Description:
Elements: E1 5-10, E2 13-21, E3 27-29, H1 34-38, E4 58-61, E5 66-69, E6 72-73, H2 74-80, H3 83-92, H4 98-110, H5 116-122, H6 131-145, H7 157-179, H8 193-202, H9 213-225, H10 233-243, H11 248-259, H12 267-280, H13 285-293, H14 314-329, H15 335-348, H16 351-355, H17 363-373, H18 380-401
Antiparallel strand pairs: 1-2, 2-3, 4-5, 5-6
The chain binds s-citryldethia Coenzyme A.
S-citryldethia Coenzyme A (SDX) binds near residues 267 and 362.
Amino acid sequence: MSEKHATLTIEDNSYQLPIITGTDGDKAIDIRQLRNSTGFITLDSGYMNTGSCSSEITFLDGEKGILNYRGYEIDVLAENCSFVEVAYLLLMGELPTQAQLNDFRSLLSRFALIHEDMIHFFDHFPPNASPMAILSTMVNTLHNFYPEMTGDSGEELPEIAARLLSKIRTIAAFSYKKSVGHPLVYPRYDLSYCGNFLNMMFDKPVKPYVVHPQVVATLNKLLILHADHEQNCSTSTVRLVGSAGVNLYTSISAGISALWGPLHGGANQAVIEMLEAIHQDNNDFEKYIKKAKDPNDPFRLSGFGHRVYKTFDPRATIIKRACEQTLKALNVDDPLLEIAMQLEEIARSDDYFISRNLYPNVDFYSGIIYRAMGIPTNMFTVMFAMGRLPGWISHWMEMMGDTKDRRIGRPRQIYRGHKKRPFIPIHERV
Ligand code: SDX
């Protein structure tokens, strides 16, 4: 971090604010002493220009479309690793040796079951309960069953993380089985992380599920691509809730709730609903493009645009390729893929989208792959949460381990309400 300074002049006073430069050249003006020295705060709705922390986990450059986990390029990881390997990288900071990976996998197998008492919870959610509401509730409840695993002591990290990574997968699959009235399928020691999930989702007593290698490979890739994305809305939520001293499970539960939003992780479900609406509307692309461009219409093209990427989201490029490969391998002909590709082509030649740097993001094509796998639309954001979990845990651990700079997150505001005014007793109010 360099010793350069920015000069701020307010009225007749000048202030020197330190400039911080990150590993890959990202720059910040350190305003941690701004209010103490000037009496001013900054105002930045949506934190578009505000850094909440420094981190060693993920680097992304929105102008160049760069995304690296712990210094490794996302496309290299997606092509060469399993999700469990990348989860270990995010959590521990280094790619695992074969022995470390085997140990981590053993922990995932050891923690794959949830307490039988938790299974009764599923019986008391309404039939059409959202899988995201169930997931957030069940993950928060894990703290009641494992209070000793508070998550704020580094020596248990692989165990703490493995417990959550494994149980979120089981909770997700169980919630699906309960929603369709099928008997639960329990995890198996002989299957991989992704193979186990698919088997728990789709195995049936009358028709055993055959784990398809291409589907497993694609699911690994999708979970890797969702595994972290620095200070996005849900990760920032996990950090903010955790900063109050809340345990890991409850902080993650808050992150699941934030991810649910259609402007965030809920977009992968909203994309499919949008593509189906266009399909039902005789593929009237122009109508939906017009709606998306109309400032008076709240409709936005789901899966398009990004707070940080002002060029192609590198994940969307990989997912689009995986989408075409997987549908071909599964011999699935989904009309929504053709609609998505045409929508992308139209939007990318339209000045409204070009001038605002609006490109497909991670959510634009992922839902089409999940559909081809047989995963129901209302579980798409659950898939996003499963993928993002190692990132959330890593950021929570990084924040809790920062004993020097860690403090409760508490932004300031500018007040624009009434000036002080006299109280009026109720019998005098009109
Ligand atoms: C994720 O932050 C992350 O890293 C998130 C994520 C992760 O990995 O964690 O990458 C995952 O959340 C991806 C984004 C998924 N959401 C969507 O696909 C929803 C549709 N996208 C938009 O709602 C929007 O693009 C956001 C929410 C993603 C970003 O919003 P911003 O940064 O606040 O930008 P904005 O809304 O101020 O838009 C700037 C302009 C506006 O037009 P003008 O006021 O300048 O005329 O672009 C327009 C917007 O109206 N615009 C869109 C649009 N997105 C932005 N217009 C039509 N369709 C869109 N999708």
